[in-house]
Amino acid sequence: ADWTAAVAAVRDLPADGRVLLICHVNPDGDALGSMLGFGLGLRRLGVRRMQATFPGPPEVPEPFQELPGLDLLVPATEAYPDPDLVICFDAASGSRLGELVDRLETARAALVLDHHASNTHFGRINLVDPHAAATSVVAEGLLGRLGIELDAGIAECLYVALSTDTGSFRFEATTPAVHELAARLLATGIRPGDISRRVFDTRPFGAVRLFGEVLGRARLEPAVAAGHGLVWTYATQDDLARHDQRPYVLEPLIDSVRCTAEADVSCVVKETTTGDWAVSMRSKGAVDVSRVAVALGGGGHRFAAGFTGSGTLDEVVGRIRAELDGALTGAGRH
Ligand code: 5GP
Ligand code: MN
Ligand code: MN
């Protein structure tokens, strides 16, 4: 990773330089948390002209609506057209930045902070660590090299990012270094119980009922992927409308589906607009779901990946089934 060039890009900002922070479309905890935490750090450094944004409608999911640093957010339509420095967070490729991808050309300096193995190094300076549990780990590394001290605001953002991307410190990427970072974040006085309840354990009653309906129609296909099994379910726009829910409430659904003992691979297929679907995939190890996702136009990590696709529900699920055998890992072939 090119830390020296990244530090220089920040240090070389003119006194009134404009900084634009961008994270991926449909932002999750790591996207928003690493971006806003880093932004609050830059503010401590004295950067005054700064915006944070993401493509699409400027809607922050309810679990993240109390993050510190939200005042940095502007709608994508209002983002600086030609910033002095653009920094991208948690996006594996330019396509994850939607209409904002052109800022990488128009900005004087372009920095990419990420942790996806599939990252295309689309910045001019790329800090990409595929071993990092979250983009917030990379962001904290750069804050440290810039001499910016953690405060409670920065720490809360980075803690949300770290705890969401590690599944509350349960996933394989949860190394001693992750716990050491968590300890430094907690030492600022942030309250993990309050933060976790807000981020993981709060949802509208309508979403509870919607989850019941969507989980109730899950299908198990034990004979798929060399017998490792597939479990999947789907949610339509009509499901959301009937329960009066926003699309982002569906994000945690995959965590309930992937519990299925009889299946290595789990999917939730979510209708975004009529005939368009966003697919979340998880694996327990026999299948590398990032290979399925990349083959179908998306990306992600070995155990968590996704893509968007068009067609009928059966067509989209059929495409997943067709890719599963080709994505078997060493652990999956037998
Ligand atoms: P999730 O299922 O939580 O939305 O996403 C899991 C992982 O897959 C994330 O690391 C995310 O970066 C990646 N991912 C999800 N959807 C897409 C997509 O449409 N395109 C790409 N390139 N990656 C995706
Ligand atoms: Mn993300
Ligand atoms: Mn991430």
Automatic annotation (TrEMBL):
<feature type="domain" description="DHHA1">
    <location>
        <begin position="249"/>
        <end position="325"/>
    </location>
</feature>
<dbReference type="InterPro" id="IPR038763">
    <property type="entry name" value="DHH_sf"/>
</dbReference>
<dbReference type="GO" id="GO:0003676">
    <property type="term" value="F:nucleic acid binding"/>
</dbReference>
<dbReference type="InterPro" id="IPR001667">
    <property type="entry name" value="DDH_dom"/>
</dbReference>
<dbReference type="InterPro" id="IPR003156">
    <property type="entry name" value="DHHA1_dom"/>
</dbReference>
<feature type="domain" description="DDH">
    <location>
        <begin position="18"/>
        <end position="161"/>
    </location>
</feature>
<dbReference type="InterPro" id="IPR051319">
    <property type="entry name" value="Oligoribo/pAp-PDE_c-di-AMP_PDE"/>
</dbReference>
<dbReference type="Pfam" id="PF01368">
    <property type="entry name" value="DHH"/>
</dbReference>
<protein>
    <submittedName>
        <fullName>Phosphoesterase RecJ domain-containing protein</fullName>
    </submittedName>
</protein>
<dbReference type="Pfam" id="PF02272">
    <property type="entry name" value="DHHA1"/>
</dbReference>
